[in-house]
Write a structure and sequence with these properties.
The protein is of the alpha+beta class. Helices cover about 45% and strands about 10% of the residues. It has two domains: about 160 residues, Periplasmic binding protein-like II (D-Maltodextrin-Binding Protein, domain 2); about 160 residues, Periplasmic binding protein-like II (D-Maltodextrin-Binding Protein, domain 2). This is ABC transporter substrate-binding protein.
Length: about 425
C-alpha cells in the first residue's frame, strides 16, 4: 500500500519478472568468501521519495568505503507481496530486500525461516539505539509472526503516515479556510459541492478509499481498538463505533458527491497526478508523496496535516530493509543498512520530504519537511500510530480493497461490507494459525 503501498505474502501468482541479476557464487545462507563486485538490493517504491533517494545516496557512500557497487533491481509491490516466499526460497535471493512490515508480510516470511535474524547486527551496530518504540515494533516479530515480538527481522529506516493535502489556491478561490476540526472539514466538503466542485480525489482501484476509511475509523478509535485489530489482544468488535462510523461515512460521502464518482476506475497514480495538476482541493495520501509534491507542484500552493480530530494516526515506521536467509553477502548487506541509518543519510531523507526514524531536527532546513517530521514525531511519541488496516493477515491486501469496490459501486450496503470484512479478517488470521476474532 504504499505506498505505500501495502501488504501480503500470498503465493497465488507465479514469478513473472525479468531474469535476476546474480551476485556471488554461493547459494547457501553462509557468507560468500572473497570480495564481490556488487551486492544486490531489491526495491519497490517511489523513485522521487526522500527514502528512496536516501538509499541511493547510501549506496554511493557504501561504494566509496568498500569499492563494491550496489545494484538496485526494481520489483513491483505486487511481485514482492504475492511472490515473496518464492523469491526468497531460491538461490536468486538478493542481499537486501525492501519488505512490507506487518504480520501478514514480514511476519509470515519470518515464520517460514526466510529472513535472517538480525540480532548480531543490531548489537554490533547499535541499531536498537536508533530504531526504538513503534518503529522497532514493526521490525521485530515473535515466533507466531506477530509484530512487536522479540526477534529483529527487519530494520525500518524511515517512517510514513497518511496526511490530508490541501490545494490552498482552490480554497482561496472559493473563499474557504483550511479545516482544523472534523466539523469544519465536513462543512468544507458541502461548501465545495454546493459550488459545483468535487472536493476529494480517492482511488478505489487500489488503497485510497480503504486508507480514507481507516483514518475515519481512527477519529473514533483508541489504542485498545488498534491493539485488538493489529495484535489480536482481544476479539475485534465489528459493531464498534470506529467501524460503523467509518463505513457509513464513506457511503454517505459517495452518495453526496464528496468523493469523485470515477474512483472505481482510478488507481493511486491517477489520483496523485490529478492532485498535482490542481484538479481537486483535497487528497489524503501517504507522506511518501511529499517530496513529489514539493518538486512537481508548480502552479499552486499547498499545505498538509493529519486528518482533523483524529485520535489515532494512520501510519507507522516505513517498509523494512531485510536480509534474506539465503543472501550471499550478509555482512556487506548489514554494512549498507548501517549507512542508511547514519546521521548523514537520515538527515538527507528528512530534507527530501521523507520521515527519518532518527534525525537531527535542526539539520532539516526545508520548512515543509520539518513540519512533516515534527508532526510524525509528536504522534509517535504520544503512541497514536495505528499502522494500516490490512496488516493482520496476508489475504487482506486484496480482500479489503475489493470489499470497498462493492461499497463504492453500491452492490453492498455498509452493514454487508462489515460482514464481508469480518469473514475475510477471521479467515486470514485463522490461516496464519492464530486465534480468530
Amino acid at each position: 500500500m504504499k505506498t505505500c503501498k501495502l501488504l501480503g505474502a500470498c503465493l497465488a501468482m507465479a514469478l513473472a519478472s525479468t531474469p535476476l541479476a546474480g551476485c556471488g557464487s554461493n547459494s547457501s545462507s553462509a557468507e560468500s568468501t572473497g570480495k564481490p563486485d556488487s551486492i544486490l538490493v531489491w526495491d519497490y517504491g517511489e523513485p522521487a521519495s526522500g527514502q528512496d533517494r536516501g538509499w541511493h545516496r547510501a549506496a554511493e557512500i557504501f561504494t566509496k568505503k568498500t569499492g563494491i557497487k550496489v545494484k538496485f533491481e526494481v520489483k513491483s509491490f505486487t511481485q514482492i507481496a504475492q511472490n515473496g516466499s518464492q523469491f526468497l526460497n531460491s538461490d536468486q535471493a538478493p542481499d537486501v530486500m525492501k519488505s512490507n512490515r506487518g504480520n501478514g508480510s514480514a511476519g509470515v516470511l519470518s515464520t517460514q525461516n526466510l529472513l535472517t535474524d538480525l540480532k548480531p547486527y543490531v548489537k554490533k551496530y547499535g541499531w536498537d539505539k536508533k530504531v526504538t518504540g513503534q518503529a522497532a515494533a514493526v521490525g521485530k516479530y515473535d515466533k507466531r509472526g506477530v509484530m512487536d515480538g522479540d526477534t529483529w527481522y527487519g530494520i525500518p529506516s524511515y517512517a510514513e503516515m497518511q496526511r490530508v493535502y490541501y490545494n490552498k489556491d482552490i480554497f482561496a478561490k472559493y473563499g474557504l479556510q483550511i479545516p482544523k476540526t472534523y466539523s469544519e472539514f465536513t462543512q468544507v466538503l458541502q461548501a465545495f459541492k454546493d459550488k459545483g466542485v468535487t472536493p476529494i480525489t480517492a482511488d478505489a482501484g487500489e488503497f485510497g478509499v480503504l486508507w480514507l476509511w481507516w483514518q475515519l475509523a481512527m477519529t473514533k478509535a483508541d489504542r485498545k481498538f488498534v491493539d485488538d485489530w493489529q495484535l489480536y489482544k482481544h476479539k475485534v468488535n465489528w459493531r464498534s463505533e470506529p467501524l460503523t462510523f467509518a463505513t457509513d461515512t464513506i457511503k454517505d460521502w459517495f452518495d453526496k458527491g464528496y468523493i469523485s464518482r470515477n474512483a472505481t476506475g482510478m488507481k493511486a497514480e491517477d489520483t496523485t497526478t490529478a492532485f498535482i495538476r490542481g484538479e481537486y482541493p483535497i487528497y489524503q495520501t501517504g507522506s511518501w508523496n511529499q517530496n513529489r509534491f514539493m518538486e512537481q507542484i508548480k502552479n499552486f500552493d499547498w499545505t498538509a496535516a493529519i486528518f482533523p480530530d483524529s485520535k489515532m494516526v494512520e501510519g507507522c515506521a516505513g517498509n523494512l530493509l531485510v536480509i534474506p536467509e539465503k543472501a550471499k553477502h550478509k555482512d556487506l548487506a548489514a554494512q549498507y543498512i548501517d549507512i542508511v541509518l547514519s546521521d548523514e543519510i537520515q538527515n538527507f531523507i528528512g530534507n527530501h520530504g521523507g520521515v527519518p526514524v532518527h534525525a537531527d531536527s535542526s539539520a532539516i532546513t526545508d520548512t515543509k519537511s520539518r513540519e512533516l517530521v515534527q508532526e510524525y514525531n509528536d504522534a509517535a511519541k504520544a503512541n497514536r500510530m495505528s499502522y494500516y488496516p490490512d496488516y493482520p493477515a496476508p489475504n487482506l491486501t486484496d480482500a479489503m480493497p475489493a470489499a470497498f469496490q462493492e461499497l463504492v459501486n453500491g452492490t453492498k450496503k455498509p452493514s454487508e461490507i462489515l460482514q464481508t470484512l469480518h469473514k475475510d479478517y477471521d479467515d486470514g488470521v485463522s490461516q496464519m494459525g492464530l486465534d480468530d476474532n
